[in-house]
Amino acid sequence: MYSLVCIECGKKNDESRYTCECGGLLEVRFNLNEVEIDFKLDGREMRVWKYRSLLPIKSEPVTLKEGGTPLYRLERLEKELGIRRIYVKHEGLNPSGSFKDRGMTVGVTKALELRKRAVACASTGNTSASMAMYAAKAGLKAYVLLPAGKVALGKVAQALMHGADVIGIRGNFDDALRIVREVCERAGIYLLNSVNPFRLEGQKTIAYEIVDEIGTPDAVILPIGNAGNISAIFKGFEEFREIGLIDKIPRMIGIQAEGASPVFRAFREGREDIIPFENPETIATAIRIGNPVNAKKALRAVYRSEGLVEVVSDQEIISAQKILAKNGIGVEPASAASLAGLIKLSRIGEIDRDATVVCIATGNLLKDPETVIKVCGEPKMVEANVEKVMALLT
Ligand SMILES: *Cc1c(COP(=O)(O)O)cnc(C)c1O
Ligand SMILES: [Zn+2]
Fold first, then answer.
1. pLDDT (tens digit, 9 = 90+) per residue, 254-308?
2. 329 CA to middle of ligand 2, Å?
3. Burial class of residue 162, CB neighbours in 10 A (0-12, 13-18, 19+)
4. CATH architecture designation of domain 71-97+199-375
5. Which ligand has the nearest atom to the CA of 13?
6. Which residue out of 194, 229, 294, 335 has the highest number of ligand 1 atoms within 8 Å of its CB and is therefore the one to mutate?
7. 363 CB less than 6 Å from ligand 1?
8. What is the pTM of this model?
9. Rounded CA gap, 102 and 67, in Å?
10. Structural domain boundaries of the chain?
């Protein structure tokens, strides 16, 4: 039904591998002629497992009912930016508060299929929160490596409370990932970073749900960190097109933070692969990554869909976060990169006025309370007295 294929040399790999002998990334490839589609694209009862016939799992899934996230239309912003339709898909409303849950439900189920007892990841925060939650549900041991002092508080809290062993390292995310890959290899632990191709299979359902609800948009805009999600969503659209469920692929538009933008630089220079950033820095900690492991897949997705990669400043990210908040959508900074990107691109005429655009809001506002206080300031404080409070009303 499916095989695990190297994107570089085309060799078929065993399910237990994360990369090919040649070093290439692996990808799940379905024999789409043989797949029996058993779902209807009617916008109803959307969940990751609605699309089970296109997921590489045979066993009973470990699920917390992830997916089925709301798609909001931002009519006021449409008028302001002069774009026909702008939607935001709020992935922050998944069980652990980010889109990572779509990947983890598949990845953790695969860990059980492979009879692993423990799972591990390096994380800027959300991967660890999600993995801890699904490992708990599955009864697996979970190990998390974090860049010390650079992870938003809500995310650490989740990993701790759901029972993961949390280890901070004095280094950045890229160091943590390098270390955890070797530790997993040596200790027989299942690695659940997005280099794991099964995670991306779960995440591709974002594309399926968009089509399910509104058909094919003209562009999908999302932040790029480790570059897994943009690759996954592109794969989802591509599969739907191959099956004949849709007839075009939206432009895949990736947004990076200025201080952590190796994929943007590679795109600017027309390259197929990146040169890493040594010291990535941005307020959007979820995308504070200098050496994105899925960069090649992501660039391929961008080129093949005639999309693009853009950068935004931390200032633009915060201001987009506030615009989303004013529309009733609470997100963490990295998530706002997609809207910041749309605003920038629409101003330079890169987005068709007639277009239908979907921005992916990747994670929830509650993840990063400390940034909110920095940006909005502390609440006002007065004595417990009606007059004092009345005096404060504006
Ligand atoms: C993981 C994450 C990203 C980056 O996704 P990649 O697949 O690593 O590119 C962006 N935003 C949030 C909130 C995330 O948790
Ligand atoms: Zn290979």
1. 999 999 999 999 999 999 999 999 999 999 999 999 999 999 999 999 999 999 9
2. 42
3. buried
4. 3-Layer(aba) Sandwich (3.40)
5. 2
6. 229
7. yes
8. 0.97
9. 6
10. 1-35, 71-97+199-375
